[in-house]
Amino acid sequence: MGITSEMLLCRFVFNGAEDDEPISLLLPSDPSPTLKAVRSHFPFEGRFHFRLQEATSGGNYVWRDLVDDETELPTASGDVLFKVLQLSSTPEDYPIYSSQVALANEYDHFQAIFRDASDDRPPSKASSSKPPHHLNALWKNTKQQLNKTSAKVWETVEFTAGRYFGSQTGADKPSAAALQQLAAASSLSRTMFSDANREHMDYLRRLWVGVVGDARPIARPSPAWVDMGFPLDDPVVTLKTFGVLGLHALVFFGDVHRSAAQDMRGNNYAYAAVGLAVMGILTEVLDIESGRFLERDEVYWKLFEDPIGLLELFSVSFHAYDTFWKHAKQTRAFQSPLDMTRQYICRLLMQGPKSVEELVHYAHDLRLN
């Protein structure tokens, strides 16, 4: 069946992957669709910049940057082609302008740094009473911190670029063995917890026994769950909003890395909630929930041929969060421990670990730096 004159065929190619098969969708052509309509129907989550292909004389064309959501698309030909640049994997509410496209990730990051820092500033009267040499020392310390942060941010930007455009040497798609493990993880990440599911409840009991012990039967509600780091005294309320992959990871960490888990639960942060958040970062970075790991050429897929590769990656990342949390508490660092953990995960994967042993080795080296 042909395309009627009442529909506009919109085709999309990602920047750097122009030779790939375009992604297509249809939009009503009357009234003329706008960039806002394109954003709302675009089938991927995240923040994107769109460029529209426009014909010029002599059969040539140019790419026009679209920065106004109210821009109307040309409908005369019934077919338009966009080049798409992904700026972030997380949707944002504020607009992006063409002058910001190249540095958007770094701009957002440093904007957050200074916003967080401004929340901790003392009143201006107190600040003005400090001698100039204190200000010099503060500036020197701030500059050193920003230099370190800038280097880590750039590594994260490099990782994000490689994530979509396969820029790392030796990158390849996951093998059949890795795909089997990643597909299983993807299924778990999309399976919501249910207290009517016997297997789900077995994992919840294992989490309870790992923390409380088997002398006390599992109880819901119970203040023990809050002590464990859940926001409510019934963990099911929280777990029903997550896939069960995070619960599997918490149980694995408690069983296999029992000593580290006991130490971390003694710190003053929500152990279970942080663990679920760390697994959320991993599923996003690896495109596990979306299933886009199938399309990606990476240097680290061999790690996931091991049935516990992902769980061990979670373990070193969760343990790294604990280190960053302690550091932030002592130094009042600009970045949150979760932001630092995300950057750590990206830097760790860029090393291309091919086994759990290599993963642990690289993880140790990165945490020393």
UniProtKB/TrEMBL annotation:
SUPFAM superfamilies per record: Ubiquitin-like (SSF54236)
Domain ELMO: from-to ranges: 199-353
InterPro entries recorded: DIX, ELMO_dom, ELMO_domain-containing, Ubiquitin-like_domsf
Superkingdom in the source lineage: Eukaryota
One Pfam family of this chain: ELMO_CED12
Xref: PANTHER family: CED-12, ENGULFMENT AND CELL MOTILITY
Name the UniProt record assigns to this protein: Aste57867_21981 protein
Native source species: Aphanomyces stellatus
Organism classification: Eukaryota, Sar, Stramenopiles, Oomycota, Saprolegniomycetes
